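Long-time lurker. I teach an intro course on protein structure, and each term I like to show students one example going from raw sequence to a predicted 3D structure in token notation. This year I'd like something fresh instead of my usual example. Would anyone be willing to generate the tokens for the chain below so I can use it in lecture? Attribution to the forum is fine with me.
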Amino acid sequence: MNAIHHLGLKVPNDIAVISISNGFIPTLYNPKITHVETSGYTLGKQASQQMFRRLKNEQAEQMIIVESKLVQGGSI
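-- Reply from a regular --
Happy to contribute to a lecture. Here you go:
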């Protein structure tokens, strides 16, 4: 967002912004940032489990689905 502001671009007129967050930070910007809300804890846990499986040469999942939802802001 700092780079966008520094370049003089306007959100969403000149550029669209979307983020991944499980916190309140996207709501601090004007306009509020549209974001995919998910659990950082769950994502990290799944990622570390996959990494350890691969390090042990065990079968790792090809696809993992983590619950998420789109939270509309004014940035797209």
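Some talking points for your students: Residues 2-71 form one domain. The chain has a mean pLDDT of 93.
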